[in-house]
Design goal:
2 copies of one chain form a homodimer. Chain A is an alpha/beta fold. The first copy, chain A, contains 10 helices and 12 strands. In chain A, the strands form 3 sheets. In chain A, strands 3-2-1-4-7 form a 5-stranded mixed sheet, with helices on both faces. Chain A has a 5-stranded mixed sheet with strand order 10-9-8-11-12, with helices on both faces. In chain A, a hairpin with a 5-residue loop joins strand 2 and strand 3 (about 25-35).
C-alpha cells in the first residue's frame, strides 16, 4: 500500500490554512485562503484541491472552545459562524474519511510534540501569542485533553473586562489586540512617539510589526508597550509553571517576532515570580514549526485517531 | 496471605497525622501528634506504634514542593525543617518497606479519587482551603504528576507580595491566613464589629471559626471578610475551570466549614467569570474524606506503587 497522508486545517485566525501532511509530519502541499462568512464552502474548496485516495483522514484546529463529546465548536469568539456548523459531520459526509476537531492551540501543541520543539520533551505548556492568546498542554508525551484557555486566566481580578465575561484576562494585557489598543489610547492622548507619524495619524492601521520596529528605533512608547505586555505574559507563564511544573514553555505566534524585548521581559518577570526550583528546570523556547504547528498538529491528531481506530 | 495495610502520613500543617489504612481505603487506626522541630523522631514514634508485619508500605504527604525524581521535599514554607531531612530514605531504612512522598494536596486529591467525592469522576481539581491553599488535579482518573500550586497562582499581578516570591497569589487573599490578617487590620483600625469584644482585644487570638460565628450573628466586618475571600477564591476556581475544564471542583480543608458564605460567594464569582459552557458542566462539591483525604491518599499512593512494582 502507498503511504497515506492526512489533511490538516487551521481555522485559527483571519486565514484559513489547509495542508496535506505526510505520516512523518511534513507538509506536502499547503493552501492559504481567507475565511469568509461562507466558511464551509471555503473549507470544501480547499480540501477539494488537495484530496485524493491517498488521504486517510482530516484534522481541524479551530480557535475556540471545542466539545470533544459533541465534536463541535462551542464558542469561537473570533469566528462565530463556525459555532453553527457541524464541520466534522459535513466534511466526513463529503469525503468519507474520519474527521477530528481540536482547539487550534491544542493542535499546535500536538504538532510541536510530534515533530517540533517539543519532540524530546516530556511535558510542556505551549502559548500561542497573536491577536489573542491560546494554550495547549502536553504531559507525559500526551496532549492533555483540556481547554487550556490560558489567555482567559485572570491575572488581575479587578482588571479590564474581557468579552469572554471574565475580568483581567491575560489576553487583555499581553496579546496583539491589547498592545494595539494601548498604542491607540496613548497616541490619541498625544503621547510623544515615532508612531505619531505612521499612517498619517490613522492609528487604527498600526500593526505590532510597526510597534516592534519603533521599539528597535528606540521609541519609548513602543518599548513601554512591549515591556508592559511582556510583564503580564511573565505573570501568566509563572502561573503555568507553578501549576504544571513543565520541562518547557514553548512560545509560538506572530508576537514571538518581538522576542528580544517582549519575551525577554516575560522571562525576566516569570523568573521573579515562579517557584525558583521549578523555574530553574524549565526551558522557555520558541516554536519550531511556527505558523505551521496547528496545521501539522491537526493532521497528526487525525493520524493518531486512525491508529487508535485500527487497533 | 493476610490483607496488607499501608501507613499514610499527613505532614500538612501544624499537626502530624499518621494512620494505618486498609486496601479498601479505610482508616484502621489513626494517631495525631504535634510536629516539633524534631519531625523525624515524631514520625518514627508514630509509625512505631502502628507498624507490624501487616504493613506493606508507607506514603507521606507533605505541604510543599516535592521532587519526585529526588524523592525529597524541596520547599515547605510552613515546615522548613523537612527540607533538610531525607524522610523517604530514613523511613525506608528503619522499616524496610517501600516509601513514597507526595505533596499533601496531591495526596488528598488521590484520596478523594480513590474512595472519596471523586470516586466516580473522570477529572477534577481539588483545592485545600486552610492556613494556605493547595491544589491537586485528577485527569482521566489519574492524579496529574504536577505541582498544582493553585494557591500560588497570581490573580492580582500587582497585588500583595507573597513569601513565595510572587505577588497577588490566590493564597494571599482567600486563605485562613489572609482572612485573619485582614481581620486584625480592620479591628486595629477601629472598625466596628462584634469581634472587637473577643479575647479582650487580643485580635491575634482570633480563629476563622470565631469570624464565621460573628458572620452568622450578622456582623458586617465578619461577613465582608468571608465574602472578599470567597470572591478571590471564585477567581481562582474560574481560572482552573478555564484551564482544565474539569467535571468537578472538590473543596476540602477547614475553611469549607464556612460553606454558606465563603464558598457560595466563590461559586457566584466563578459563575460570572468562567466560560459558561465549562461552568455549566462542573460540579463544585465538598470533600467526602475531609481531613482524612491526605492521610488516606498518601496510603493509597503507597498501595499504587506496590502494585506497579509487583507487575
Amino acid at each position: 500500500m502507498q503511504k497515506k497522508c492526512a489533511i490538516g486545517i487551521d481555522l485559527g485566525g483571519t486565514n484559513l490554512r489547509v495542508a496535506k501532511v505526510s505520516p512523518e509530519g511534513e507538509i506536502v502541499t499547503k493552501i492559504t485562503a481567507s475565511t469568509s462568512e461562507e466558511v464551509l464552502g471555503s473549507v470544501h474548496k480547499a480540501i477539494d484541491s488537495l484530496f485524493s485516495d491517498e488521504i486517510a483522514g482530516v484534522g481541524i484546529g479551530v480557535a475556540g472552545l471545542i466539545s470533544r463529546e459533541r465534536r463541535r465548536v462551542i464558542i469561537s469568539p473570533n469566528l462565530h459562524v463556525v459555532e453553527k456548523i457541524d464541520l466534522v459531520g459535513e466534511i466526513a459526509k463529503r469525503y468519507g474519511v474520519p474527521v477530528v476537531i481540536e482547539n487550534d492551540a491544542n493542535a499546535a501543541a500536538y504538532g510541536e510534540m510530534w515533530v517540533g520543539a517539543g519532540k524530546d520533551i516530556q511535558s510542556f505548556v505551549l502559548l500561542t501569542l497573536g491577536t489573542g492568546i491560546g494554550g495547549g498542554m502536553v504531559h507525559g508525551k500526551k496532549l492533555l485533553n483540556v481547554p487550556a484557555e490560558i489567555g482567559h486566566m485572570s491575572v488581575s481580578s479587578d482588571g479590564e473586562k474581557c468579552p469572554c465575561g471574565n475580568s483581567g484576562c491575560l489576553e487583555s494585557y499581553a496579546s496583539a489586540r491589547a498592545i494595539l489598543s494601548r498604542a491607540v489610547y496613548h497616541l490619541e492622548a498625544g503621547r510623544e512617539s515615532l508612531l505619531q507619524m505612521y499612517y498619517e495619524g490613522n492609528f487604527y492601521k498600526l500593526t505590532t510589526e510597526d510597534i516592534f520596529k519603533a521599539a528597535l528605533d528606540g521609541d519609548n512608547l513602543a518599548r513601554d508597550l512591549w515591556k508592559s505586555a511582556g510583564r503580564y505574559l511573565g505573570v501568566g507563564i509563572a502561573n503555568m509553571i507553578n501549576l504544571m511544573g513543565p520541562d518547557a514553555v514553548i512560545l509560538t505566534g506572530g508576537l514571538t517576532g518581538a522576542w528580544d524585548i517582549y519575551i525577554q521581559e516575560a522571562v525576566k518577570e516569570a523568573s521573579k515570580r515562579a517557584f525558583r526550583e521549578l523555574f530553574e528546570r524549565v526551558k522557555i523556547i520558541p516554536s519550531l514549526l511556527k505558523d505551521d504547528a496547528g496545521l501539522i498538529g491537526a493532521a497528526g491528531i487525525a493520524f493518531n485517531i486512525l491508529r487508535t481506530q485500527a487497533v
